[in-house]
Automatic annotation (TrEMBL), chain A:
The protein's name in its UniProt record: (2Fe-2S)-binding protein
Pfam families: Fer2_4 (PF13510)
The entry's keywords: Oxidoreductase
SUPFAM superfamilies: 2Fe-2S ferredoxin-like (SSF54292)
Keyword Oxidoreductase: yes
Organism: Paracoccus onchidii
From TrEMBL, chain B:
Organism for this UniProt entry: Paracoccus onchidii
Every FAD/NAD(P)-binding domain range: 6-317
Keywords: Oxidoreductase
Annotated ranges, domain SoxA A3: 375-453
Cited InterPro entries: BFD-like_2Fe2S-bd_dom_sf, FAD/NAD-bd_sf, FAD/NAD-binding_dom, Metab_Enz_Cyan_OpOx_G3PDH, Opine_Oxase_asu/HCN_bsu, SoxA_A3
Keyword Oxidoreductase: yes
One Pfam family matching this protein: SO_alpha_A3
Domain of life: Bacteria
Name this polypeptide is given: NAD(P)/FAD-dependent oxidoreductase
Automatic annotation (TrEMBL), chain C:
Protein name per UniProt: FAD-dependent oxidoreductase
Oxidoreductase is among the record's keywords: yes
The organism's taxonomic lineage, starting at the top: Bacteria, Pseudomonadati, Pseudomonadota, Alphaproteobacteria, Rhodobacterales
Domain FAD dependent oxidoreductase: 5-346
Domain of life: Bacteria
Record has Chaperone as a keyword: no
Keywords, in A-Z order: Oxidoreductase
PANTHER family: FAD-DEPENDENT OXIDOREDUCTASE DOMAIN-CONTAINING PROTEIN 1, SARCOSINE DEHYDROGENASE-RELATED
């Protein structure tokens, strides 16, 4: 959906999206990483399980909510990717661990 | 960093940074909080970021100015707390914030909201499909990540931002399958009344005319008078459908559709604080009422930047300086009157071309089709709102109670104006009279654990 | 001037229920609402349908209401989102078990069998994920919860179908009596009727004062919070003995948390404000009850203004002036009583006889003289 105009001088690092290693660069928000990682989604909604991708990128729409390092419903457009970060894309309502 | 401040500035965009620098010059030590990781706001987002020269060149000289402003803000030595969300303000002002999933509250004598604007939601059928985003979102991806959309890319809407973004995208080798220009035909005649006022803002307009010429020269497919834009697809956008000026319906393959119909002030915080707001016919939105010193109708609560009316980055800076002087006066240190006059003169200059832009690009007044989702969170359609309106004849808050529209995590930031528009059509009353949702705290969702820990009186992380 | 048989002041659930029952009995009823239907306590309610732990003086009315809740569709042609998944009050010490057992034995001595004690195994089945420190609960299995907005819509629609006229945006500014008829002046003109029902909630004492009657009443604004949607795991409404928490999961999956922690209010403007330092106690109690909900995000908090009496029982009685009837001051637990209170109110207005189930709710008990007697 989106591609990064890579600059070979820029160092990258790895994050994990649903367990899969994905490369990220300094300054990337988690939402930006999701938009170039197939299937380019943040989550399926809790109401009808519709697929959603980051939409506004400025903290307004809440469509980019995902789980980041076990913290659920994080606005991924407001969080910078950091090395080793674990991102999970929820499907439907959040599960309460028991 | 000090732990006690008299003044809180919310937002480190043009207005917040200018206000902070001005207050520091006057001997005050405000605290600036911002949701983002770096100062600059949306317009100058990632100014300090490690972007390539090509990206910097494409973003243009207006963006480059941001680096200088951010540097000046850093040099001012003002306390700055990035990655911090404001979620509630109690009168007086006890302010509740969260950082690194830790909530805390502190007391301030004056608060300046420099929280800017958001893009006006453009509800069209299929706009919730992955691959459909706002033009502003795509531009932010360019600034933060040097990231561009993959072909075929369609851009639909109206206003200066699509033009600017397309210019930047094309300069970086991106492609635009077509610009679906939804600006109503015959706008030029609506612009004439504002021509005199605009003469003072000639520079901005000449710049605009230059962009337009450059864009046309690229051979970009520019379709004017387009309406009824729709995104089609199952799990993501696959095609875009639109009605051309000649009435013919077209369907074209699409990977990305970017929407934009101007920006509107962020009003959730001022609504939650029960500030007075006025409906602006010119900008098609509610604007919090402010006095000549940038103070809202709530004593001690100030507002600057696009949140006080859309004017762009340079106007936002002037409003930031005005509010800074206002706050200084409120805290008993009146600055020389000349300072305020100079800032007001600067603001008038920066706003001179605004009436032309507002008149050129009015928000769409076309009826939202019944099947269009308007509440992205609760997945409710325009038809759902119309049914509730016909059944209960209530205002936005009753419709919210009966349908759950606006009860999701975005708290009505995406559906508020659509509900306002639909109810005003249904009841044959003005947009001003129809009003907006009552806004309930928290302004941003906090976890139960975060709130529970607040009791311990934890300090800021 | 508009006339009716009965004017109801207050478009909350109690006003609507009284209006509905009276209209079904053939009366011409107009409801006068200051803002809009359900604006305050009714719309801000947690909508618990609870007999659990009720004051014994309210039990006859609460039990009659519970019968009606189980057939609520017969009354308003909608289920109001009512589910009888039970209500639980959990405890953590042996001393609490003993005290609760004594209380329930006393209830049974009065013939009430709505509550029972359950042990930890049953508790864990009913509330998966509950903190193991809670060892048992008082349980009322026929209790439950409804959807407050759906209930409002249903009562309103049923009342309108029965011929009730509802006038919103009509705050009352004056009441006067002339030759056996009450004249009620509102922002939307004057209305007249021989009978006026004062169902004005937190403003009930102000309306009473307009008839020359002084009734002590204060107010409260219990804060509520609701989270994002979670997978459905908890059916009953849960509270903790001795703590300010009521905890339930709505049919949408959101956690709805209340329990009587007080926010701020202003009767003149009708506005409320949150006190988050106080609300933090509620969040802490929720986390203690069910540690796994710690990460759930709070989407919204609110409160509504409700009338509160010194003994936390409502005022339901004829007024001192002829033709006036009061029904307000439910002190934060009136939702469950709505169907039966309206039914009995209609009977009282029609016959002029105070029914036995309303006897504990006379206004005189609240005056110093009444309290001393």
């Amino acid at each position: 959906m989106f591609k990064q105009l890579t600059d070979p001088k820029e160092p990258g690092f790895q994050v994990f999206v649903d367990g899969m290693a994905v490369s990220a660069r300094p300054g990337d928000t988690v939402a930006a990483v999701l938009l170039r990682t197939p299937p380019h989604l943040a989550r399926h909604t809790p109401v009808r399980e519709s697929p959603r991708a980051p939409f506004c990128l400025m903290g307004v729409c809440f469509d980019c909510l995902a789980t980041v390092d076990d913290q659920t419903s994080v606005q991924t457009c407001l969080v910078e990717a950091r090395p080793g970060m674990r991102i999970e894309r929820p499907r439907g309502k959040l599960k309460v661990a028991q | 960093m000090k732990t006690e401040h008299d003044i809180l500035i919310v937002g480190a965009g043009p207005a917040g940074m200018a206000a902070a620098v001005q207050l520091a010059d006057l001997g005050f030590a405000p605290l600036v909080i911002d949701e983002q990781a770096m100062p600059g706001g949306q317009i100058w987002r990632a100014s300090e970021g490690p972007r390539s020269d090509a990206v910097r060149r494409a973003l243009g000289p207006e963006y480059a100015e941001g680096a200088d402003r951010v540097a000046r803000f850093r040099l001012s030595g003002v306390d700055y707390m990035p990655g911090t969300r404001l979620w509630h303000i109690e009168p007086g002002f006890q302010v509740f914030m969260s950082r690194d999933e830790t909530a805390f509250s502190r007391r301030y004598r004056a608060v300046l909201l420099a929280t800017g604007a958001q893009e006006r939601p453009v509800p069209v059928p299929g706009w919730t499909l992955p691959g459909v985003m706002t033009v502003g979102a795509a531009q932010i991806l360019l600034k933060t990540s040097a990231q561009i959309p993959e072909a075929p890319v369609w851009i639909a809407g109206s206003g200066p931002l699509p033009l600017l973004y397309m210019r930047q995208l094309l300069a970086l080798g991106g492609q635009v399958a077509g610009f679906l220009d939804t600006t109503p035909k015959g706008q030029a005649s609506r612009v004439l009344p504002h021509a005199m006022a605009a003469l003072r803002g000639r520079g901005d307009l000449i710049k605009g005319v230059k962009w337009l010429r450059q864009l046309r020269a690229t051979g970009l497919p520019w379709l004017r008078g387009v309406r009824d834009v729709q995104a089609l697809g199952q799990d993501r956008i696959e095609a875009v459908r639109y009605t051309a000026a000649d009435g013919r319906v077209h369907e074209q393959s699409a990977q990305v559709l970017l929407l934009h119909e101007g920006v509107v002030p962020s009003i959730h915080t001022t609504l939650a604080m029960n500030c007075e707001h006025d409906w602006s016919e010119a900008q098609g939105c509610f604007i919090p009422r402010t006095d000549e010193r940038g103070m809202t109708s709530v004593d001690g609560l100030f507002l600057a930047g696009d949140g006080a009316g859309i004017g762009g980055a340079l106007a936002a800076e002037e409003r930031g300086r005005i509010a800074a002087l206002g706050i200084a006066g409120r805290l008993g240190q009146d600055a020389p009157a000349a300072h305020l006059h100079a800032a007001h003169a600067g603001l008038a200059r920066r706003l001179a071309s605004r009436p032309v832009i507002d008149a050129l690009y009015p928000p769409s007044e076309a009826q939202i089709p019944d099947e269009t989702v308007i509440c992205r969170c609760e997945e409710l359609t325009a038809g759902d709102i119309r049914v509730a309106a016909r059944l209960h004849r209530g205002g936005p808050n009753q419709v919210k109670a009966y349908t759950r529209c606006g009860m999701g995590p975005c708290q009505g930031r995406q559906c508020g104006y659509s509900v306002n528009r639909i109810l005003s059509e249904e009841y044959g009353q003005s947009r001003a009279e129809t009003g907006f949702f009552r806004i309930r705290p928290p302004l941003k969702p906090v976890t139960l654990g975060e709130l529970a820990a607040l009791e311990e009186g934890r300090e800021a992380p | 001037m508009s006339t009716a048989d009965v004017l109801v002041i207050g478009g909350g659930l109690h006003g609507l229920s009284s209006a509905l029952h009276l209209a079904r009995d053939g009366a011409d009823v107009t409801v006068l609402e200051g803002e809009f239907v359900g604006r305050h306590a009714s719309g801000a309610s947690a909508a618990g349908v609870r007999t659990l732990g009720r004051d014994p003086r309210e039990m006859p009315l609460a039990l009659r209401s519970m019968e009606m809740w189980h057939q609520i569709g017969d009354l308003v042609s909608d289920d109001c989102g009512f589910h009888a998944h039970g209500q639980l009050r959990v405890f953590e010490t042996e001393a609490q078990i003993a005290a609760e057992t004594r209380r329930i034995a006393e209830l049974e001595a009065h013939g009430h069998t709505n509550e029972q004690i359950i042990g930890q195994d049953t508790l864990r089945q009913l509330v998966p994920g509950i903190n193991p420190k809670f060892i048992g609960a008082a349980y009322a299995d026929r209790d439950g919860a409804a959807d407050p907005h759906r209930t409002l819509v249903a009562f309103r629609a049923a009342a309108e179908r029965a011929g009730v006229r509802i006038v919103e945006g009509a705050p009352v500014c004056r009441l006067s009596e002339q030759r056996g008829a009450w004249r009620v002046e509102t922002a939307q003109g004057a209305f007249a009727a021989p009978t006026v029902i004062n169902a004005a909630g937190a403003w009930g004492a102000r309306v009473a004062a307009m008839t020359g009657e002084s009734i002590p009443l204060s107010a409260k604004a219990s804060m509520m919070m609701v989270t994002e949607r979670l997978t459905q795991t908890i059916r009953p409404v849960v509270s903790i003995v001795g703590r300010s928490l009521s905890f339930k999961q709505s049919s949408q999956g959101t956690l709805v948390l209340g329990g009587g922690i007080q926010g701020r209010y202003d009767l003149d403007s009708g506005r409320t404000a949150m006190d988050f330092h106080a609300l933090a106690r509620g969040a802490a109690a929720a986390e203690e009850l069910m540690p796994a909900v710690k990460g759930a995000r709070i989407a919204r908090c609110w409160s509504g203004i409700e009338g509160k009496t010194s003994d936390l029982l409502p005022v339901i009685c004829p007024g001192k002036a002829a033709g006036i009837f009061h029904i307000f001051g439910f002190s934060g637990h009136g939702f469950q009583l709505v169907p039966a209170a309206g039914e009995a109110m209609a009977g009282m207005v029609t016959t002029g006889v105070v029914p036995e189930i309303f006897l504990p709710f006379n206004a005189e008990r609240l005056t110093t003289k009444g309290a001393a007697a």
